[in-house]
Specification:
- The protein is of the alpha+beta class and about 625 residues long.
- It has 4 domains: about 300 residues, 3-Layer(bba) Sandwich (FAD/NAD(P)-binding domain), CATH 3.50.50; about 140 residues, Beta Barrel (Elongation Factor Tu (Ef-tu), domain 3), CATH 2.40.30; about 90 residues, Orthogonal Bundle (Arc Repressor Mutant, subunit A); about 55 residues, DNA polymerase, domain 1 (Orthogonal Bundle), CATH 1.10.150.
- The chain contains 21 helices and 22 strands.
- Strand 1, helix 1 and strand 2 form a beta-alpha-beta unit.
- Helix 2 runs parallel beside helix 9 and helix 3 crosses helix 4.
- The chain is globular and about 80 Å long.
């Protein structure tokens, strides 16, 4: 019934979709197997993509040839660029999507790839030959053979849903959990733990009094996520902001005696940076209110998502507390929020390719690795799919470095430091965030993706043309000299010091209060030179000029650190014979088996002195 596949992808969430698409685009014959073909690309929680650091990841996925950015652009109902008041390294795109359209668009993209087959069934076990994966077993009794397997099980591995004192098995509300895989992997020597996440109640939008809420509109200029020419919405839907209050908190506290979190029924650790509402009012008891984001779920639905009100309290308590929020006095609840516990496998058991260390050709991606968030899952799926294809074809692995992408930071953190709580990406996790901006993801990554055959010819031509145009713009600005009479009135209007002599545009633009678009409005001659360049390319040239000194400093730091990255540690290296290493370093090195000195230096618990000792010993 089934042929032998190159890659089997288990699970069709954000990680699974990207993994299947990437491997198939590279030429592998892929089977995407999921328990429900109607929920491909499902947005299980918030119908939104992007945000702080997460938006950079989606742009990187797009630049590398993935599809999350395209799907988001073509299904968005609102777009906002966050942190515009800060420097460009902090700018982060975020979009609300139509939940149903998002899933349908993902399925359409996958179905158009002739290298992808689909099958609806539960994978209950894996097949291995010696220490190499060779297929999967399904609940219906099929044994499907493959050269590699990518597990992207999300929250489904032995998932348990909690609502107050009620417990039910499930990987998502009204969906069965997945059993069998954890127990088998444990038998093969893998370590597994439990994590927790949650989701808020969904509300009937017709029952809210929007006049009492603060409106939150989208940006007039929709940048989007994809570097391709995607279709953006001509209109946008509004979101709103509401607040909890003392009465809301008092009502919530009446349910604490039945809280699965406070009563110890939930053992898994939850996300530190996205706590439940009951956790918030306990941890931040001094605050009289917490902000809530009121977000529509799509163009043609009345369903509303209450961002910031995740809860596992009894549904009656959730409902009563919601009705104490200003504007929610008559709200109707579609379904309560809930918490879900699930299995994950500490990611120090993985190589940087996301292949497991114990079993060859078996890859993990997404929440199975302890991460939280669509974006984090999607980028892991992309890299796992790429590396599964590379491995079975005896090609070089594809590993993004920390100075190349947030994706590189995320994977490097996971495999070297591990995580004992749901891992979420932040800009602060990246030491080279001036280099890793959302605006230059295509310049950073598309060339590398094109070389392995993932990014299309059209993409690479666009990037090469963009780079040439940026150089042209920078030269124009370096050659163009402002006349004092032409520019001083503008400078006085913006409270910037007037010029006492002519100055190059490339120097004037370094002032914080000056931007290129205003300079083009002031000078008709400058505008004539630059008017034919598209806004994104103009912005790229401006950023490179304004932040050149900071960019160069980070590049110098990258160059210094690259020495450690180039020092390869042999797989057979015996750490036990280096007696001067600390016991913790020796244990961590033996467990993680770092591939380079750079990787060794980033392992949690390893001191600089340990790295120096290792460096000296390798030199000998």
């Amino acid at each position: 019934m089934f042929p032998t596949y190159d890659v089997i992808v288990v699970g069709a969430g954000h990680a699974g979709c990207e993994a299947a698409s990437a491997a198939a685009t590279l030429g592998s014959k892929v089977l995407l197997i999921t328990m429900n073909l109607q929920t491909i690309g499902e947005m299980s929680c918030n119908p939104a993509m992007g945000g702080i650091a997460k938006g950079q990841i989606i742009r990187e996925i797009d630049a590398f040839g993935g599809y999350s950015g395209i799907v988001t652009d073509e299904t968005m109902i609102q777009f906002r660029m966050l942190n515009k008041s800060k420097g460009p390294a902090m700018w982060s795109p975020r979009a609300q999507s139509d939940r149903n359209l998002f899933s349908r668009k993902w399925r359409e993209i996958l179905e158009h790839n002739l290298n992808i087959d689909f099958y609806q069934d539960m994978v209950v076990g894996l097949i291995k030959t010696e220490q190499t994966i060779s297929g999967v077993k399904t609940r219906l009794g099929h044994e499907i053979r493959s050269k590699s397997v990518v597990l992207t099980n999300g929250t489904f591995l032995n998932g348990v849903i909690h609502i107050g004192e009620k417990q039910m098995t499930g990987g998502r509300v009204s969906e069965k959990n997945s059993t069998g895989i954890t127990e088998q992997l444990q038998g093969w020597g893998f370590q597994s733990e439990r994590l927790k996440t949650g989701t808020p109640p969904r509300i009937d939008g017709r029952s809210l009094n929007y006049a009492k809420l603060d409106i939150q509109e989208g940006d007039k200029d929709i940048k989007g996520f994809s570097f391709t020419n995607t279709k953006k919405p001509s209109i946008q839907k509004n979101c709103w902001i509401a607040y909890t209050n003392k009465k809301v908190h008092q009502v919530l506290e009446t349910g604490f005696s039945k809280s699965p979190m406070f009563q110890g029924r939930i053992q898994g650790v939850g996300p530190r940076y996205c706590p439940s509402i009951e956790d918030k009012i306990t941890r931040f008891s001094e605050r009289e209110r917490h902000q809530l984001f009121i977000e529509p779920e799509g163009w043609n639905t009345i369903e509303i998502y209450i961002n910031g009100f995740s809860s596992s309290l009894p549904e009656t308590v959730q409902f009563q507390a919601l009705r104490e929020i200003i504007g929610f006095e008559n709200c109707k609840m579609f379904r309560p929020g809930y918490a879900i516990e699930y299995d994950y496998f500490p990611p120090t058991q993985l190589n940087s390719t996301l292949e497991t260390k114990l079993i060859n050709n078996l890859f993990f991606a997404g929440q199975i690795n302890g991460t939280t968030g669509y974006e984090e899952a999607a980028c892991q799926g992309l890299m796992a799919g790429v590396n599964a294809h590379q491995k079975i074809n005896d090609l070089e692995p594809v590993i993004l470095k920390r100075n190349e992408a947030y994706i590189g930071v995320l994977i490097d953190d996971l495999v070297n430091k591990g995580t004992d709580e749901p891992y979420r990406m932040f800009t602060s996790r990246a030491e080279f965030r001036t280099l890793l901006r959302q605006d230059n993801a295509d310049i950073r990554l598309t060339e590398k993706s094109y070389r392995i055959g993932l990014a299309s010819q059209e993409r690479i031509e666009n990037v090469r043309n963009k780079k040439e145009c940026v150089l042209e713009i920078k030269k124009i600005l370096d050659d163009f000299i402002f006349d004092i009479n032409e520019i001083n009135s503008y400078l006085e209007n913006i409270n910037s010091a007037p010029l006492d002599q002519k100055q190059k545009a490339s120097q004037l633009i370094l002032r914080p209060s000056i931007n290129l678009s205003d300079m083009m409005k002031v000078s008709a001659s400058l505008n004539s030179y630059l008017k034919n360049y598209d806004p994104e390319t103009l912005e790229q040239a401006e950023i490179q000029l304004k932040y050149d000194i900071y960019i160069q400093k980070e590049k110098e730091l990258v160059s210094k650190m690259s020495t450690l990255e180039e020092q390869v540690i042999p797989d057979s290296f015996n750490y036990d014979k280096i007696l001067s290493l600390s016991n913790e370093a020796r244990q961590k090195f033996n467990k993680i088996r770092p591939q380079t000195l750079g990787q060794a230096s980033r392992i949690s618990g390893v001191n600089p002195s340990d790295v120096q000792i290792l460096m000296v010993y390798m030199g000998r």
